[in-house]
Amino acid sequence: MDQFPHQGGELLVGGVPLSRLTARVGQTPYYAYDRSLLRHRVASLRAALPATVKLHYAMKANPMPALVGFVAGLVDGVDVASAGELAVALDAGADPREISFAGPGKQAAELRQAVAAGVLVNIESFREVGELRSISDQLGVPARVAVRVNPDFELKGSGMRMGGGPKQFGVDAEQVPGLLAAIATAGLAFEGFHLFAGSQNLKAESICEAQRKSYELALRLAADAPMPVKFLNLGGGFGIPYFPGETPLDLAPIGDNLHQLVRQAARDLPEASLVVELGRYIVGESGVYVCRVVDRKVSRGQIFLVTDGGLHHHLSASGNFGQVIRKNYPVAIGNRMGDSATELVSVVGPLCTPLDLLADRMALPVAEVGDLVVVYQSGAYGASASPQAFLGHPAVREVLL
Ligand SMILES: *Cc1c(COP(=O)(O)O)cnc(C)c1O
Predict the structure, then answer these.
(1) Nearest-5° Cα angle at 61, 54 to 106
(2) Residues 15 and 131 grouped into a single domain
(3) Is residue 330 located within the same domain as residue 370?
(4) 361 and 239 inside one domain
(5) Phi and psi angles of residue 179, each rounded to the nearest 5 degrees, phi first
(6) Do 121 and 264 fall within a single domain?
(7) What is the pLDDT of residue 161?
(8) Contact (Cβ atoms closer than 8 angstroms) between residue 358 and residue 317
């Protein structure tokens, strides 16, 4: 993977050779994230998208506090999905005016924390309006709210669909006029709309289409809004390549499309800022997962490298986080980069389940016990998205370089 160079057979992460980095971390397995890659990624987004489009980081992709603090300084806002994430975002120094809180089933206590912090709450049910009304009365500040709309379309070709049809996310577009009336009656501070149609998409044209449809739907719904739209969050869904044959997303057409929507919005919704919210695209390619080979076995002719890492730290790479057909993430032997002699091996973890698979029959340099296995594209949906307590192995470490 080009984003991580190597030198003398060692992968470099943040410029540090992997064996040295492992000694510094003090254990395997660990995740390592590279600040310079995060900075470059945000810079390339800024270069491609209109300057007036706000870039938000959806921190559920990687909630490591140090990383959130670093990314918060690069983007315009942070999107949180729980009071726990809200606390991390606030500690990270994110501006409460640019934090939004989305997610189904927000509890009264979480909503209270959000209103007190002054962040924007993306309302996802009629119940939330009632909760927010009494919280606003108690605290003496009107809750800042947007409506998360479950659109009547989906993001085509997404890894995960999160809009269109019956969904637990947002309020169906048909019900939004009624919800807007309830918000007005409750005296909440309405600020806009949030639409999120899907995730992990590599087709620029599908993303552009979803953005256009989101814009048009929001414009129709704005006719019933009690106050002018200030925020129009068009979602994200920008994907990264994980598997052979996948190519990086082309940002240029998405930038062109957003330029057009910015021009339309200046006319139709003059007070509105357009927002895109990205998780995986910002952090995914900046991180690696590193574990150590603890055993090498041959079973009926097939070679297994057994490592101290696995699905308990990296559920996504094992293929058990939403994949329909399991495919291998890109994997390397991080202390044998560039070795030309390869063999076909399976890399597995220490858990007592055949699901604990990091690479299935992959050509890798001939590895021995003690070598370091690297899983690329591991900056998003890693440590926090994995069942770490499963089987009672030690927790994974995370380091930001
Ligand atoms: C998960 C999520 C995101 C981030 O998705 P990525 O694929 O990581 O970019 C953005 N917005 C909402 C509402 C989400 O639930």
Answers:
(1) 85
(2) no
(3) yes
(4) no
(5) -65, -40
(6) yes
(7) 63
(8) yes
